[in-house]
Design goal:
single chain, alpha/beta, 5-stranded mixed beta sheet, 13 helices, 5 strands
Length: 349
């Protein structure tokens, strides 16, 4: 055989397309992560203002007109309401103005992201200094001393997501990307559910009792982890059942390329560019990170939307997998075996 014939035999059109797809994923990965994280700055951060009478309106208007729209201020009646809204994750901070003194109080919640709370502290301190006033910062929901930069919840969820799509990918690689029938699809989903429960429990125990990185209920984190792993795995199974082996690459595109940088992990959502802010809460990494921080630092508040998002991924992924397994189609050929047979036939000739 000539070199050209050997090249044609060794590099099939299918393999070439897969390599092109991997190259595209590589470029998208770089674009996504650098695009989302290279220049973090606060935009429309929900922020409360507690001040007497007309001072609240004046200060709110001033904060609203800051260059770059870093804050989305709203007047609140008192400190108790400000604390409640922070714990309910309705606002990320609040300024309490003391009309009788020269020192105001800034409420923050580093459990929602240390970078954001530090940014608010620096911004408000500078603004207050312009008015010859001082700021005392109070952390209403402080992150654990073992949770550096508040990243543990994010890394925990990323670990769960990785487990979900790798488990689904292994099931596809070992027995065909598309289940042969509905019974096989049910078996795959059952295996995935068992794996999700074990993976969720393992992650919750590691970040809680073992490392002490995250406070909060181990049982609640276990439940969240089980849902995250199953949601990602079911979505991957669904993509594989529709697109074959290419579905694994599409899962990586959704979860890793789009989901991770928009999850609000390294930088909370208000510090990301608009596109990533918009998609983050609707993808498993973002929904999972938000819920994990709520469990750890905010008494489980404001988790409903995140849990519904994860449940939707799990249900839709399962339904698509079952529906596709019920459709009659030609059995999938094994590309490697086909290539070997072709090569053997060419050699014999």
């Amino acid at each position: 055989m000539s070199l050209v014939d050997e090249l044609k035999s060794a590099v099939t059109p299918r393999a070439a397309l897969l390599v092109v797809g991997v190259f595209a994923l590589q470029l998208l990965f770089i674009t996504s992560y650098v695009g989302a994280l290279h220049n973090p700055r606060p935009t429309d951060v929900p922020f409360g203002v507690v001040a007497p009478g007309q001072a609240a309106t004046v200060l709110t208007d001033r904060l609203e007109k800051l260059p770059g729209d870093p804050l989305d201020p709203r007047a609140l009646p008192d400190e108790a309401e400000a604390r409640d809204q922070i714990m309910n994750r309705d606002v990320d901070g609040a300024l309490l103005v003391d009309p009788r003194g020269r020192t105001d109080t800034l409420l923050v919640a580093s459990g929602g992201g240390k970078v954001l709370s530090a940014t608010l502290q620096a911004m408000i301190t500078e603004l207050e200094a312009d008015n010859q006033r001082l700021v005392r910062t109070v952390d209403v929901a402080p992150s654990s001393s073992q949770d550096f930069n508040g990243l543990s919840a994010f890394y925990l969820v990323i670990g769960w997501c990785v487990g979900g799509y790798i488990c689904a990918a292994i099931l596809a690689i070992s027995a065909g990307s598309r289940p042969a029938n509905r019974e096989r699809a049910i078996i795959r989903l059952g295996v995935l559910a068992l794996y999700a429960a074990l993976g969720g429990l393992g992650g919750a125990i590691i970040v809680g009792p073992v490392l002490g990185a995250l406070p909060g209920s181990v049982a609640a984190l276990w439940g969240l982890g089980t849902l995250v792993v199953f949601a990602v795995g079911a979505a991957t199974l669904a993509l594989q059942s529709v697109f074959g082996i290419v579905g694994i690459g599409l899962a990586i595109l959704l979860i890793v390329v789009a989901g991770n940088p928009s999850a609000g992990g390294a930088f909370p959502l208000p510090m990301l560019p608009p596109f990533w802010q918009a998609i983050g809460p609707w993808l498993p990494p973002g929904a999972g990170t938000w819920a994990a921080r709520s469990i750890a630092y905010f008494k489980g508040n404001d988790m409903t939307v995140s849990m519904l998002v994860l449940a939707a991924w799990a249900v839709v992924g399962s339904v698509v997998t079952l529906v596709m397994s019920s459709l009659k189609r030609e059995p999938e050929g094994e590309p490697i075996a086909t290539e070997l047979d072709t090569a053997g036939g060419a050699g014999a000739r």
